[in-house]
Every structure is written in C-alpha cells, then in structure tokens.
Here is the input.
Amino acid sequence: MKVVKFGGSSLASGNQIEKVFQIVISDPDRKVVVVSAPGKRFPEDQKVTDLLIECAERCLSNQNSQEIAASVIKRYSTIAEELQLPSKIISEIQADLEARLNGDRSNPERFIDRIKASGEDNHAKLVAAFFEEQGVEASYVNPGEAGLLVSAEPGNAQVLPESYERLHSLRERSGLLIFPGFFGFSKEGEVFTFSRSGSDITGSILANGLKADLYENFTDVDAVYSVNPYIVKRPKEIKELTYREMRELSYAGFTVLHDEALVPAFRAGIPVQIKNTNNPAAPGTRIVYERDNTNGPVIGIASDQGFCSIYVSKYLMNREIGFGRKLLSILEEFGLSYEHTPSGIDDISIILRENQFEAEMEQEITGRIVAELHADEVKFEHSLALIMVVGEGMRHNVGTMARASKALARASVNIEMINQGSSEVSMMFGVKEVDEKRAVQALYEEFFAAVTV
Amino acid sequence: MKVVKFGGSSLASGNQIEKVFQIVISDPDRKVVVVSAPGKRFPEDQKVTDLLIECAERCLSNQNSQEIAASVIKRYSTIAEELQLPSKIISEIQADLEARLNGDRSNPERFIDRIKASGEDNHAKLVAAFFEEQGVEASYVNPGEAGLLVSAEPGNAQVLPESYERLHSLRERSGLLIFPGFFGFSKEGEVFTFSRSGSDITGSILANGLKADLYENFTDVDAVYSVNPYIVKRPKEIKELTYREMRELSYAGFTVLHDEALVPAFRAGIPVQIKNTNNPAAPGTRIVYERDNTNGPVIGIASDQGFCSIYVSKYLMNREIGFGRKLLSILEEFGLSYEHTPSGIDDISIILRENQFEAEMEQEITGRIVAELHADEVKFEHSLALIMVVGEGMRHNVGTMARASKALARASVNIEMINQGSSEVSMMFGVKEVDEKRAVQALYEEFFAAVTV
Here is the structure.
C-alpha cells in the first residue's frame, strides 16, 4: 500500500490533474492521495495559497477582499471547466470560502490558518469529484473526522502522537482516499496549518499512520540532483540516498522536500520516493534508511548563503567552566539560534543565519559579551556561505577530507571554517559568499567528474 | 633590564647553582633572579616540593614526619656543602621549616601551601647567600614585603592587579634581587601558592611589574621543539614563535612553560626567552607578540591523549533554540569542563578530558540528556587524541588543510574530528589514541621534512 502526495504544480490545472489521475490508477497499491492547493501554471502565476493569505490579511485590515476571493474561486472554476465537472462543486467551494471569510476574526492568526487551509481542503474535494466522475471509487477524507490531531500552533502545528493510531483505521475504508494536505485539527476541533509546504508533512504522517510500504512524493523534478543545477550544468541525479543524507543536503539549500516531512516516515522506516508528475516513467530518487555505498564517498554537495560568525577570544578561556554556556545564553536572550560553534583553545566562533539580526543587535551583543564575559576580542564577520559535502560513504573513508580540501586549494578558495566529526555523513566548509560558486564547482569536479590523469 | 627564572633542575645541586651564577653575572642586564625549589639531580631523584607535600600530609594525618623533614634539610645542606657556604644558612632553613611544621593546622589546605612554599623561599635565601659569598651585591627579596599580592586560593592563587605597581619599585633597589618563585601573600598576609610549576608565573609577574625588556626562562632543554622528541627523532628547534602559537602548542602537551605563566608577560608585551642552563650558548626559543612568517605555514605539531567525546543526535535539533546551551548546562552541573563542540545539522559532539569522569557519571549524564533533551541518541567514545597543527603562517594559506589531511590519509589515519576556523593559527584533528603517533609523524614529515618529488 502506498501513500501518494502531489505538489501544487502537479495539481495546478485540469490537464495536470488528468496526469495525476493516470498516475494514481496505474498502480493499484496507490491508496491514499494527498492533495496540495493549486500551484503555479507558469512562472508569473500566483499560487492559491498566496492568494488566500492576501485575502485573509485584507479581511483583517478591513480592506476589500472580494476581488481576491473571486480570483481564488476563478482558479477552481477554470480547473472544473477543464475537467468538465458539474458546477455544483464550485458552488460548494464558494460557499465554504465565504463561510470561512465571515467567520470569527478575534484571533487573527487562527483566522488566517482557517483561510489558508481552505486551499488544500477544497482542492481535495474537487479532485475527489473528478476521480468519481471517471468511474473510480474515491472519496474526500476530512482530516478532523479521520483523526489527524495537531497542536494549537497557528502556522506551525505539530502532529500529536495519538494521530497515528487513529489514522491507521483509514486502511479499512474502500476505494481511493483523497486527503487534503497542510493542516489538521486541534483537540478542540479548530483548524491549524503546518509550516509552509506542509502537505509533504501530511503525506508522511499518513504513511506512518497507515504503515504504508512506500510514500511517493510527486513534484516537478525528475530527481534530487547531486548539486544545484544553477551552479553546475546537468548534474548527476541521485537514485537513492538515506534520510540523514537528505536532511544534511536540505539544510543547505536542497528544498525538494520539507525538512519536517521526513520525520514521520523516518520514524516508521518507510521509504520515500521523489517522482515527477510530468515524467512518471523517470525512476526518481528514493530516500531510505540504509543504502549500499557503491558510488564513491560523496552523494551530494549543497550550499547556502547568508551566514555570519561572531568570533570571541579570551586568553585562558579554555579553563573557564561555563564560558560557552554563558555565551550561548546571551544569544538566546536575543532570540538568536545558532548553527555551529567551532572553537580553538582560547577562542570560539558562533555561526548564525544573518537574517535573524536586527540593526542594533550587533553592537548590543558585542557590548554584553565584553561586559559580562570579559572577552579580549569580539568580532563579527558577514557574508559567509556554508557548503555541505554529504555522503554515508565518507564515514571512515580516510581520503575524503584530503580530496575536498585539495580541490578547494586548487580553486584558490580559502577555507574560513571546517566542521567535521559530529556528523559522520557530512563535512562542512565555511567560505566567503563570493567564493561559494567556485568552491561548489571545484568539489563537484573532484567527486563527480574527476578523471584520473 | 631582564628578569631571569631558573627551574628546579637548574638549581638542584651546588654545581648547577654555580652555572646559574655564571649565567647571571655574565649579563649586567640580569637584575631579578627567580628561584625554584631544588629539583631532580638524576631521574630517580625526588623534587624538594614533592618531599614537602608528603611531609605536610604526614603531619596532617598525625604520621611521623621527622624523617622526611630531615631529607628536605639534607638536600639543602648537601648543596650548601658543595658551595662551601657557612652552616648558618642551614640552621636558618631548618628553623624556618620547623616553625612552619609546628604552625596552625586548622585549615589543612593553607597549611600545605605554607609548607610547599618553603621550598622556593628557603632556596632563594640559600642562592642569595651564595651570590653574596662570591662578592656580588645580591639580596633575598620576600614576596610579601615586595608587594606580590595574590588571591586566597590554596594551590591556585591568582595575582591581584595592584601587585604590578607595587613590584615596580623593586627597580630602585641596588644589586641583584633573588626572588622565590611559586607563591605570594594574601591581603591578610598569608602564604598562598600558584598552581604547580608556578615559579614560571612569578617570573612573568615580575617581568610585567618591573617592565623588563626580556623575561628569560632557564630550563633544561635547548629550545622548544617543533614536535615531541619521543615521537620524532631530532626534531627541528623553534627559534621564534608567538604567544598564541605557544599557547596552542602547550594546550596539547608542550609543557616547557606553565600556561598561565605567559599571561602577565603577554599583557605587557614582554618577550620570553626559553634557554638551557646547561647550554647557555644555545640561542633557545623566543616567544614574541608578532613574528615574520618566513618558514612555511606550520611552526609546531603537538598532541595529547586522554580525551573522550559525547555524541548527541536528535532529528531537527538544529531548529531548537537553546539546545546546545541546555546540554552544556547539564555538563556544568557535573563540574565538567569541555574542550570543543563540533556539530552537524542534527547532532553535536562534546569533547572533554577523560580524567574528569568518575565511575557512574557516564550513565547519569546519558540518562539526563535523554530525559531532559529527548535526544534520539547519546554515545560516548573514549581514548581519543587531539593533534594541534600550529602556525601563524597558515592563516589564509589555502593549501595547508589539504596538505595535512592528505598526509593523514597517506598514513591511513582516520580523522574522527576536525576543528578549524575559530583560531586562525591552528588546525585541530581528533584521532584514535592508537593512531596518534603515526598521525604526528605523518604531519611532521609533510610540513618539516617533505622533499619535493
């Protein structure tokens, strides 16, 4: 039995939904279909979720929201026309959206969540209607009725553990189950959404709850690539990688799948298959618990910009019990989360994402570190990029670091920072943002395109 | 003006003290002579400080301490005979030790400190007497009278900042000043010792207080070596290195000079010269603020055993503000100080010195991390060695990491951990203890003995 999730672009038009239908019925193991809200049909198009957010915000600020609500309905009715569905479904969707827009606005965040969730909810109803029209047994499933319970955190709901057992009974239902992604219900029966792109999470939760054999995640790429195609042309596709490898890659810019989405499948040991709705014959990429290491030590190279470091030095820092903890407490008080803390003997650097900083913070933080920890030196460095070289095969492979650092040296890239050791499946290099592209290209060259001379 | 400090082996016998005398009078700039307690004359010999500690402990447990006190006096009287000093000095030393042993024992730690400090104090008196016998103007200086004030921490006293100004007036005194190392006086007038080998600290404090041009530290080696001579035969001597380089090297096993001893000299920018009492013609090693980087990127390689790591992993750890800080707080509650914290995306390792652990701690710590932080995995790894590759020249030298990791790969050494980035003057490699020697040899080969092929 398989749980199959389709992304927004896979469901953006009637034509796309017909492809989805063919994919689903071509494999009788495909039982549960998780549906996103309609996405973009062309690059300049707007996603229904974005329209809904704007609509909700206009309501809250008492601006005119009619026009934008109409354009949401227009998206659904265009699709319904393309699929030659009876107009009843559109009346239903319109009534639902109106009811939500006229609902309680006393808690703005919860109001927004209810509006946002309608994108997936109504699209699941539409898709179910289409499947039924094709003469297939299929039914829309309401997440609340099915038992998908979540925490009452608007825009960041977390699945509650009891959901899994409740959802398991969906196995007993006959026919295809069309399940809206992105949201669940609190114990009090209110709608709360996951973080953005949360339909991936819904699929993973269902795969876990129903103890599926496979979670198929259909998107618009043939596979996960070994490196960013904007940096290296026609990069190698990854056929199989582990959850840990996927997580390390996604940390630094590989955004094929939502980070949190891997957790439920991972905990249940269910493999995840990334596939392309527009090219279902392509094998795609499989995410598994363990894999053979037959293709060299490195499986992928990811990179991300927008980091900065705070360097703190103090003679004999090393002797002070609690120095690091106190330093991290100061950052915590500013609400800053940090990424890494490489340390020397009497110095430590804290690597953070730059977008967390507000204007005055840098000076305030420096002041507090000097005043409270009597540091000799506090120095900010901006515009850093982190590069992750990922692969289970590099565990206990003695030459990988040598090859990586040599490749960077050859490309005249200065390594600002290395973090290796904790994770056995990755090496991390910090470089200046201006060196990022050259560094990634040099590493790809070394591990994927190197020819023995 | 120079402050000159002599170690215990440089003052272990009459013959050695004659060498010291020749060294001191050969340079009229040598004004202040800091004296250690008599050290070992041959490998099986006992240091006077060790005898004194045993003597004090016997007193405290009401055991017979006569014999061991006699052997302390015997060491001084042997030296006095070799130097043909009048017996008066030995009577004085004997009376002093007896008075200390019969002193207040209500605070055992302070009692031990007073006994320990007598080793240096009495030897300074003996050395001063010998200098005077040779017809040189020289006088013993009592640290309390001279104004060397320290905190009231037995065995770990810290200099108080007001000492420096007080000590400065020693410049006005005529003749050579013979100053006992290792201890100072609290504001209440009680004796407190520095940590072990603390005579180095006394010398550095005096160099700072008197604003000396140079602090000469005489010991029993010709120079600081670029690598441990027990691991690599006849290693290169280091002619000049910076304070930071010395500190990084001494962290991992280079014990020529007491760590804390560099601080006062460093703060005053006074160079430190390491020299050999038994070969004063050898140029020795100079520790300076800044140096030319003319001899390649690496100046020395140090290593030390006895480390362990605690590996903690938790899926999406990276998203939790405060995770690292909470983890460090738990270790702090166990009184553990940590060395480094390399981290991956969802995992972190804490590197600690193994000797801090008591039997049950490992299990208790694991239990608390699992219970309080809901970690997925907590794993201890023992018997690790840290290797420091040190050199100011490696800053912004793009190829150094490549050379180092390649050398380790060639020697089939698996790198368990790398920490580079915070300190700009060192790279740290963690390896298994069994690989330590091979790793250091391979790195030395690469950076000091490599022949271009």
Q: What stands out?
A: Chain A has two domains: 2-288, 300-448. The longest helix of chain A spans residues 108-133. Chain A touches chain B through 62 residues (CB under 8 Å). The CA atoms of residues 419 and 428 of chain A lie 5 Å apart.
